[in-house]
Write the structure tokens for this entry.
Amino acid sequence: MRLKWNLRIFLAVSVCFLGAAFSAPTSTAQRMFGPTVDPLAIPPVGATVFGFRTTVELAAESSVMYLPVSISIQPQGTVTADRNLTFRFETVPGGQLPPRNGIVVDVPVVLSQGMRQASLVRYLPKWSVGRAVSVSVLENGEVLPGYTGQLSGQIRSRALFSSLMPSEFESNFLLVRDPTEAESSVSDAFFLGSAGLRLTPAELAVDWRNYQRFDVMAMTLTTLKQVQQLESVFAAVRAWVLQGGTLVVLDSDEFSAVFQLANFSNLPDASADLRLRDSLRNFLPNQTIAAGVRLGEQAMEPVLDAVASEMTIRQVGAGQMVVVKRDSFLSPPQVLALMQRTAGYRVSPLLRRGVDPLLGNRRFFEWMIPGVAQPPVYTFIGLLTVFVILVGPIAYRRTTKLGRGYLMFAIAPILALVTTVAMFGYGIVADGFGTVARVRQLTWVDGVSGDAAERVRGTYFAGIRPGDGLRFAPDAEVFPFQEGTGSSWQESLEIPPSVLGTVELRPDEQRFSSSFLPSRQQRQFITHLPRPGIGFLQLTPAQARGASPTVTNGFEFELRDVVIRDQDGNAWAIQNLSPGESMLGSPLTTTAASKVLGQMYNAFVPRAEVREQDNQRTRRRRDVYDVLSTINNQVDRRNSVSNGVFELWLQRQMQTLGELPPSHFVAIADLSQDVLAVEECEVSASVRYIFGTLR
């Protein structure tokens, strides 16, 4: 009996050991999908092997994004001791444009003792066009001999950015189909005339950034139920939608049931419905429906009403969700063709984000830190006045009175030197030696789930560059907001290649080297990240007619200047609402609500300084000086989207319209400390807007 138990224990321990031996250094649930460039084997065949081989695959995407990369490691036998490796990815001069946007990305990997294989997926920040990168493997800070290579190739140095970034000008579709589903329900015709990719639910990624290269994700209700069972995948898809993606669900029975399944708010959206009807009005003529009838041959409005009743569109956070009923008038390919017409600026990931790291633009100056890196004019005038008084009425009169006027040849230079040193020293001391930040944190909440998407615009100034660099969340997208030199796209290609800095992708953070924040310069970054389970604002209607509703703060932080619009269109306000606290709302008239919203927005409105326009821009109108404006003019002239979807909604509702949609709220809160990229920095003139749907 004891022998049997010892055997069982031995087998159990062996199974556990083998499971650990074949595990990866990070979650094996990470997946990367889509086309890739030719895999890179390191070291090449025939080269000396230092204990392991590795294969690197990079997503075949040229545009600006967080680029998925897959790393697989095959040790030669079992790893006998822990090994600290670093996979270094560096942009190749001539392989990415503009040349000045070079970057080095380090991915640390620990091969633990006993491992026999390892694989992981990471997301490399890429702020240039092209995908040529050199790859090297380091151990303990030294490059292993022979462990180098290059992914992809060169690109034309004089190419137009529009030819290198086609995904910014056309809709990119991702079709998700359950392999057991009938082919007729969702056919390959979905992708006629569009750039698309078809995957099964099991092939989807668990990181929301992998979906950012797509504008529309389509699936049937059956497939959505399959995706919901994959917890990490479902969370990533929902985060992508909240950040600005479009999810289309086909073959549904009831609209509300689909939104409930997706765990999103389902609220009437008049602007979205109007946009859909306008797109239908332009799309339906000459489309063939059931029985071969062409809609152009009959009255438009009755057919328009019938088709519109079979589908609905709702804004969900910064994104949107479209639901199409089963046996709809429109076929799946027609639905996607309609989405192309409806998408507008949403076809461009750069417009959705509202940041261009390629050229930058003058909107950089809309969010500067006041009072730093600016010449202290009045102080300098005061010092110069003192200098003039000392040299003139005082020193000159004293020396001439004593009969020693020749001393002025020594006194004047000495006083000039002292004044110059005083001015220089004051210029340094006035800005201090620490770091100052100005942050604009926008948190867009889905009231049903309590999940949110967030956009953070942070400007930083360091008297002395921080030794530890800057830190960002591991699952965030981070893009530098370039100041904009006034150079065109073609002129930027003439600038010599340079490297902005090094980014280390640690398991718990993204660490940017201190070179991204030089001393005594203002630098700006735009960050997008998911905020799952952040909380909610709940509105409980009053029982008595005409009484005030009860508002409950389901967030873990205080809300100030809360403005609410209930389902009936009535506006309510609360001055301060602590976490977990419930209070009665104070009624606001339509005029008062509009005034309050305008004041809340204008108190922190991004406002640029007036600067002289570049004369070259007038002389060379055909060249590209502003990437975002160029894309906007080609894909959607109806909406001016310069600062992204978050800012577009906030400005439109709080400033332009002066009213919130029904069942929405907006409030102000303190910044969350985790959005500050530098520890122990002083915060100046910052704001956090919390807004979204009510629970």
Notes: Residues 377-401 form the longest helix (25 residues). The chain has a mean pLDDT of 85. Residues 379-431 form one domain. The two ends are 61 Å apart (CA to CA).
